[in-house]
Amino acid sequence: MKNKLFTFLFLFTSLIVVSQENLLNKNKWSIEKANQWYDNHNWIIGANFVPSSAINQLEMWQAETFDPETIDRELGFAEGLGFNTMRVYLHSLAYKADPIGLKKRMNTYLAIADKHAIKTMFVFFDDVWQKSPKIGKQQEPVLGTHNSGWVQDPDDPAHKEKKNFIALEIYVKDILKTFASDKRILLWDLYNEPGNEGKRMTTFPLLKEIFTWAREINPSQPLTAGLWAWDFQELNAFQALNSDILTYHNYSDEKHHQHIINLLKSHGRPMICTEYMARTNNSYFANILPILNSENVGAINWGLVDGKSNTKYAWNTPIKDGAEPVEWFHDVFRKDGTPYSQDEIDLIKKLIAKTNK
């Protein structure tokens, strides 16, 4: 009897795995379709965006602190520079608190971005920074500290508890269905840096689920989840093999960055670097952006405007009195729209003009 039960459970589990694999493969874009999509766009260039008035994703999206005036002004800075894409994080708790309101605010954001000729790359889940997000008023920034209020989504350990997956599935599918044909959205980035903050493979089940949910909805926009930790072999293989467009993060110098591009070329798919530019890590616009331009790799740097996220300060090296760092880590503009570096602005505009001839 035990053997029969074991055999039944094994076969049942195998059918579930096979079914999930079939769903993952069913609507995945071919290499040809992915390259055609990419060729129909100008060079994709922009920044990761949270308005300077928001410390994190929740402060950006909750009704009480949603700030369309600041969003409009700061996306105007991006438009003036020639940026055409923003990568923007969502948060499941904002949906849990107010599903209809979140979708309305997303639509408002998209209308503002579209006015500035900017497309949006929305991010669903995120394994980085504080592990216990809470709905409601968010903390104030810690003086001189990089991303002191950024929060994971879902929290830890909720990310690995399958009882939470039902609510997360409802959230993901509802957002994807609502905006599945919206031409203002460039692509869907399903999971930022899976396995970060020590989570490693505990993230893998949720990563597989969100790809499965997204393939079931089959939006008109491509799907991706960016590679970021080159020793996470199983996660990297899954992300690369299930993404329509390859995306990745690299905050290293030009030699290492070029090496990563050379390796990822073997997949034959278009590439977008969705995080780079950390000045004190020797990842500058000056040494990285020309490579991305010449290789026709999309370029999305971290940070547009210096604000409550404090990302002008470097990781794990706070300046406790909040003084201006000698060299900014991230970000392009001050709050009033003046650039951190006019030389950087001139280079960005030059490369965009050259590409769009």
TrEMBL record:
The keyword Signal applies. Keywords: Carbohydrate metabolism, Glycosidase, Hydrolase, Polysaccharide degradation, Signal, Xylan degradation. GO terms for molecular function: hydrolase activity, acting on glycosyl bonds. GO terms for biological process: xylan catabolic process. Coiled coil: none annotated. The lineage of its organism: Bacteria, Pseudomonadati, Bacteroidota, Flavobacteriia, Flavobacteriales. This is 1,4-beta-xylanase. Residues 1-19 form the signal peptide. The keyword Ribosomal protein does not apply.
